[in-house]
Design brief:
Belongs to the universal ribosomal protein uL4 family. It is built from 5 helices and 7 strands; from the N terminus they run E-E-H-E-E-H-H-E-H-H-E-E. It is α+β, with helices and mostly antiparallel strands. The chain has a domain of 136 residues: 3-Layer(aba) Sandwich (Ribosomal Protein L4, Chain: A). The strands form 3 sheets. The protein has a 3-stranded mixed β-sheet, with no helix packed on it. The chain has a two-stranded antiparallel sheet with strand order 3-4. The mean pLDDT is 94.
Length: 216
């Protein structure tokens, strides 16, 4: 947890104006195990149910030959005149057969999480963002920033132009992390490329504000 009792408040010009006590939420214990557990459970609530067709693997006429033929007793396709006749069917070990334990849409897709655990995980994640070692270990460029967390005056909540926001971030030496994000766009692997999720950028700085006076 963060040990500093107070943090400096910087003006919109990047100068120290005052100091405020460190919020209690940023002093919460760091629990990566709890954060991962809660995140995994909550991520499962966004899954879309899927299942194979109930007819899959059974859309053929097959019957076992019984015993005495020196072949397995698995059902076999009827008829003749084609390679398919006599082939095993239906079983999960068969070519063209159904899978074992076919998936159903009534599977228990979602998970419940304790409210106290969700709150603890949120507080723990915020507290981790106030430790420079953990922030830098994640790849953020904060070498030139005065301190972490970087607290600034409420006047920046009135910024409405992107150019003004960029100028402010440069004044407080926080724009280096933005440039890291800009140059980090990579092509996503897998089917997400075809589903409007083609590129994956890195995450930039977390900005916490009190009132939206034009900054959003």
């Amino acid at each position: 947890m963060a040990a500093r009792p107070s943090v400096n408040v910087f003006s919109d010009q990047g100068e120290v104006s005052t100091s405020v006590p460190m919020p209690a939420v940023l002093k919460a214990p760091i629990r990566p195990d709890l954060v991962q557990f809660v995140h995994t459970n909550m991520a499962k609530n966004k899954r879309q149910p899927y299942a194979v067709s109930t007819k899959a693997g059974h859309q053929t006429s097959a019957e076992s030959w019984g015993t005495g033929r020196a072949v397995a007793r698995i059902p076999r396709v009827r008829g003749g005149g084609t390679h398919r006749s006599g082939q095993a069917a239906y079983g999960n070990m068969c070519r063209g057969g159904r899978m074992f334990a076919p998936t159903r849409v009534w599977r228990r897709w979602t998970r419940k999480s304790n409210l106290t655990q969700r709150r603890f995980a949120c507080a723990s994640a915020l507290a981790a963002s106030s430790l420079p070692a953990l922030v830098m270990a994640r790849g953020h460029r904060i070498d030139n920033i005065a301190e972490v967390p970087l607290v600034v005056s409420d006047s920046i909540e009135s910024i409405t132009k992107t150019s003004a926001a960029v100028a402010f971030l440069k004044r407080v030496n926080a724009f280096q992390d933005i440039e890291r994000v800009k140059s980090s766009r990579k092509l996503r692997t897998g089917k997400g490329q075809l589903r409007n999720r083609r590129y994956v950028p890195r995450r930039g700085p977390l900005i916490v504000y009190n009132a939206d006076n034009g900054i959003v």
